Amino acid sequence: MISGDVKDAVRDFVFGMEDGLVSNLGLALGVSAGSGDASTVVLAGAASMFAGAFSMSAGSYLSSKSQREIYEHEIETAREDLKKNPRKCYKEIRSSWMEEGLSKEEIGRLLKKSSSYKHPEFFCNYMVHKKVGISKEKLEIPLKNASVMFFSFLFGSAVPLLPFLVSKFNHVSLFQAAVVAASLTVVALFGVGWVKTSYTKLSRFKSGLEVVLIGLGAGLIGYLVGWAVGALG
């Protein structure tokens, strides 16, 4: 069984890699079609790579931090409610269990069997999870999420740019660079889809193919936009 921390890391890795690969492949193909210059492709891709990495990691950090802040606020509210009116709160938790299918007799036996269900911390955690769908065990670590997102996006974005960087210094044609960039990205996308199955438990081939098709679709759109802009110019 995969731990929660590993699952979170896999999710951020897949998200960052896929977004970096897809966005920069579309950009690289579009700019190469519109400008016909390897230096312009590398410059635009590098700017997009670092800007996107910082933006994605900042978004991941703020999202995880907001989740923690919401949880802490709701826990504090639940504690205050429990202090002010414990009878009402325990009545609320019994009603919640009955809605989930437990009978009064089952709830009575449950509470009698284990006093932990009457503990204030259990009540607070249970009611917060019931209200906002967040539990203490599922809280994410903002810095960890941001770091995984940053480096996965950075690495993913670099893959489509490498052939154009080689083209700039070794006089390889832009067409050849574009073909190699698309090929490398396809392989990387398939790998991302393969890794994703450790979290989703879906077919590895199906998952890899799905990610590849999405990436190629984005790359094709980027190329067509760049070609259209270049034609108009």
Structure description:
The chain is mainly α and about 230 residues long. It has helices at about 5-35, 40-85, 85-100, 105-115, 120-130, 140-170, 175-200, 205-230. Helix 7 (about 175-200) packs antiparallel against helix 8 (about 205-230). The mean pLDDT is about 80.
Question: Which tags fit this structure?
Answer:
elongated, 233 residues, mainly alpha, 86% helix
Radius of gyration: 25 Å
Succession of helices and strands:
HHHHHHHH
Label the structural class: mainly alpha
Estimate the helix proportion, in percent: over 70%
- Count of beta strands: 0
Q: What's the helix count?
A: 8
Distance from first to last alpha carbon: 56 Å
Quaternary structure annotation? single chain
Strand content: under 5%
The main sheet comes to: none
Give the low-confidence spans. none
Q: What general outline do the C-alpha atoms trace?
A: elongated
Mean pLDDT: 80
What is the structure about, briefly put?
This protein is an all-alpha fold and 233 residues long. It contains 8 helices and no strands.
Topology:
Blueprint: H1 4-35, H2 38-84, H3 86-99, H4 104-113, H5 120-132, H6 142-170, H7 174-200, H8 204-232
Helix pairs in contact: 1-2, 1-6, 1-7, 1-8, 2-3, 2-5, 2-6, 6-7, 7-8
